[in-house]
Every structure is written in structure tokens, then in C-alpha cells.
Amino acid sequence: MKIRLLAFATAADALGTGETDLEMPEGSRISDLRSRLDHDHPGMIPLWPRLAVAIDGRIVPPDTPLEDGAEVALLPPIDTGRAVAAVSSPSRGAVVIFLGSVRDHHAGRPVEKLTYSAYRTMALEGLRRIVTDLEAGHENLRAAIVHRLGEVPVGEPSVVIAVASPHRAAAYDASRTALERLKAEIPIWKREHYADGGAEWREVEPLKAEGSTRDSVDPG
């Protein structure tokens, strides 16, 4: 049987691709897929304790059977610690972290997951501009913004903003400003998938940027 494998962020790096078709023996389960990936791509081995696995948009346990034509997604969480480390310094005593997680409802409809997409080049340029402006507005302030792309299940963080400053007032102000500018300026969209089978696009927030020379896009 053939499955479609989607991988995001660190999982995509470990596999060398974000999307591929795999032939699996009949009767295979997620655990069998894991064994194959570990054998072919040893870089996957340390990632599994942090990965969620979804089949056709639903998070599933390791013993879940695979079926022909299934779409299997490997979903790493946002590395909040990395964002904090990017801005922290002994000279910055105030660190403010904002986490935005996927809600299980919107406008009275149960939500199962979100799918994010973006105009990457334009989005990253805009994120760098926001971070540069924030850091220029406050002495010794550093900021980092991370937003996942692709599928994000309910309950998992989709965005983190980390700001560090010598003083808490500046850190709080910069964090709030970062979020509001993300919503207003960055070309990223989300598609809400509902429990009743419906789905619709909604305009939203961004990708990833860190202060100074640390800039990148998180594909997952």
C-alpha cells in the first residue's frame, strides 16, 4: 500500500524532504513506519519523544493501522526554549513569553486542527522589519518570533513571541506590539478544519524571526 508522508520543521530536516510517497507492507502500523524511518533516516530517532503523528488530520497513537492512500503527518512542537535562548542575556532581567495555541472551537463550531500557509519571502522580510523596529525602540532589547506552518492540532502552540529586556515594562510593551503588528502586516493564512467536516480560510499571524543576525523560517 502507498501512503503520503508529510514532515515539518526538524522532521523535514531529518528526512531531507517535507513531502514524499512511501510504499508500506499491508497491515503496517505507525510503529512500523517509525522503524522504517529510523533505519533509513537515523536523524529521526531523537525526535520521536517530541513528535505528534496525525493520520488524515487526526492525532493517533503508535499502534494505529495504516491504510492505502492515508496522509501521515509528523508534527514537531515549537521549540519555546530555543526562542527564549535566542533573546536571553545576563543583562536582560525581564523575559516575556507569549504562546498562542490552537483552540478547540471558533464561532460555536468545534475545531479539529488548523493548517497554516504563507508567502514566505514577503513574510520573513516583514518579520525581520518588526523585530528590527522593536529592538531599535528599546535599549538592549531582543525579540524572537516563531510561527508554525502546515498542520497544527488542537491544543498545540502555533505561535511564540519571546522578548527580553533589562526592564519588564519594555518587554511587555514590545511583546504586545509584536503580536498586533503580526496580525496587521504579515501575509500568513490559516484554514480551520471543523469536526462537522467543513473547513474555511481565515486571515492571521506569521512565521519566524529572531533579533540581530538570527533570522529563519519555521516550516512546521
Q: Characteristics of this structure?
A:
five-stranded mixed β-sheet; 220 residues; disordered C terminus
How is the topology of this model organized?
Blueprint (H helix, E strand, L loop, with lengths): L1 E6 L1 H7 L3 E5 L6 H11 L11 E4 L2 E2 L11 E5 L4 H8 L6 E8 L3 E2 L2 E10 L1 H18 L4 E6 L2 E4 L3 E9 L2 H18 L2 E7 L4 E6 L4 E2 L10
Parallel strand pairs: 1-5
Antiparallel strand pairs: 1-2, 3-4, 3-5, 6-11, 7-8, 8-10, 8-12, 9-11, 9-14, 12-13
What features would you describe in this structure?
The chain has helices spanning 9-15, 30-40, 80-87, 120-137, 168-185, and strands at residues 2-7, 19-23, 52-55, 58-59, 71-75, 94-101, 105-106, 109-118, 142-147, 150-153, 157-165, 188-194, 199-204, 209-210. The protein has 220 residues and is of the alpha+beta class. The strands form three sheets. It has a five-stranded mixed β-sheet. Strands 7, 8, 10, 12 and 13 form a five-stranded antiparallel β-sheet that branches. The longest helix has 18 residues, at 120-137. The two termini are 27 Å apart. 33% of the residues are buried.
